[in-house]
Amino acid sequence: MPPTDKPPTAAMLVIGDEILSGRTKDRNAGHLAERLDPVGIALREIRVVPDETARIVDAVNALRRSYTYVFTSGGIGPTHDDITAAAIAEAVGQPLIEDDRAIAILEEYYHERNLPFTAARRRMTRMPEGSSLIQNRVSAAPGFVALNIYVMAGIPSVFSAMLDAVLPTLQLSEPLKIETVATGLGEGVFGEALAEIAERYPSMSIGSYPRHDGTHYTAEIVIRGIDAGAVADARADIIAMLDELVGEN
Amino acid sequence: MPPTDKPPTAAMLVIGDEILSGRTKDRNAGHLAERLDPVGIALREIRVVPDETARIVDAVNALRRSYTYVFTSGGIGPTHDDITAAAIAEAVGQPLIEDDRAIAILEEYYHERNLPFTAARRRMTRMPEGSSLIQNRVSAAPGFVALNIYVMAGIPSVFSAMLDAVLPTLQLSEPLKIETVATGLGEGVFGEALAEIAERYPSMSIGSYPRHDGTHYTAEIVIRGIDAGAVADARADIIAMLDELVGEN
């Protein structure tokens, strides 16, 4: 991916019936969001689709054309319902092959453990021709990179280790400056005044995030922008506005 | 939504910059998945998009045409970044109005508490003309239903209360019969034998979900189908297969 002037963007595709049935709670998308934000890659979309080839192909093709990077989790294990590698090959128009490098890694891994390199385990060497491997410190079976698609495991510890391997290879950017202002006031109290401040700082993202403790509503106001000085100015304006409202209420 | 012979389907649209930045972990999609599965509504897709009107409109229009029901969370509060109601109005082609029923509810709510019904709070009465209200036991501010789109709050306790109000109004279906078989074996050991069993039961969804405890891989095999007898037969075949492999390994 050649460097450009625009900040890089990303999408996450979570693949798995078990997420949609509620059996498993996805943790990989939230983890990816936490890791990308500080390195200036903007995660712009998350999708979850079932273990169905057509659904995976359609989602991958929509996302890979819209974002700098696409990350996927799930469906690269040794069982019959692990269909992600074949679906990615179809999406990028490359033949699905058993990768020689992956075969060598897994042959050695199982040999050292006196375990048979079964046909099921051999499924984990399949990827689109021309892919790069994503090796990692947790799992012998590698993920892979095809075009701008980073295909990683669904098990959170393996996903995270694969992300450790991948992040240093990506085009990073200046992270946004972020300030958070907590308030015991509800959004209905400060909503209009905050809207006026947000209008004065059009280049900044100013968001309000309500909480409800069962009785009271409170909120956190988050200011995000490239210009640290302007973020600090907006923060000071918001604090002054809240102080004035606390005096009134 | 008229009843049909086909089981109802659903999609979830999570709206919010805070999820994509990793600041907040979404809990509503997982909660929805857990609630829909037992009542026979198949959650088939989840998307997360930022607080941007065009992105919300595009996602809502794609999802509402593909699924029986669309549920949204987030962006219906009183601040300037709460743009969901206006985006839904645009998506369904209805004018955005301040709903008289919602005004009456909130006027009474704030009057009882000696709080002003501010312009910010009044934003929470906006919805596409012709919507139904989603009232609930936690929040005075209602969600709303426009066409097949159920627009609900982002705060998990309010989202859950709105779902309580909504579920009894939906077209339910027979839930799938589900059996889970836990095994201490790794997927690479039983993958081929499981694939053979899955081929013998084509009407059933047989999935394998690996776990990694830092040292060992184990797995759970989940069988899902309409026919309880066939699910029981598949379960017995899988247990016999695993017993045989344990004897060998």
Could you explain the architecture of this structure?
Two copies of one chain form a homodimer. Chain A has 249 residues and is an alpha/beta fold. The first copy, chain A, folds into two domains: 9-169, Molybdenum Cofactor Biosythetic Enzyme, Chain A, CATH 3.40.980.10; 177-248, Alpha-Beta Plaits, CATH 3.30.70.600. The first copy, chain A, has nine helices and eleven strands. At the A-B interface, helix 1, helix 2, strand 2, helix 6 and helix 8 of A face helix 1, helix 2, strand 2, helix 6 and helix 8 of B.
In brief:
Two copies of one chain form a homodimer. With 249 residues, the first copy, chain A, is α/β, with parallel strands linked by helices.
What tags apply to this protein structure?
Molybdenum Cofactor Biosythetic Enzyme, Chain A, 3-stranded antiparallel β-sheet, 2 domains, 40% helix, 6-stranded mixed β-sheet, 249 residues, Alpha-Beta Plaits, 9 helices, alpha/beta, homodimer
The CATH topology of the largest domain in chain A turns out to be Molybdenum Cofactor Biosythetic Enzyme, Chain A
What is the string of helix and strand elements of chain A? EHHEHEHEHHEEEEHEHEEH
Tally of extended strands of chain A? 11
Distance from N terminus to C terminus of chain A (CA atoms, Å) equals 54 Å
Largest interface, C-beta within 8 A: A-B, 68 and 68 residues
Dominant shape of chain A = elongated
What kind of sheet is the major sheet of chain A? 6 strands, mixed
Note the beta-strand portion of chain A.
Answer: 15-25%
Query: Reading side by side through the largest sheet of chain A, how are the strands ordered?
Result: 2-1-3-8-7-6
Provide the structure class of chain A: alpha/beta
Counting DSSP H or I runs of 4 or more residues, the number of helices of chain A is 9
Protein name (chains A, B): Competence/damage-inducible protein A
Pfam families (chains A, B): FLAD1_M (PF24102), MoCF_biosynth (PF00994)
Domain MoaB/Mog (chains A, B): 11-173
Organism (chains A, B): Notoacmeibacter ruber
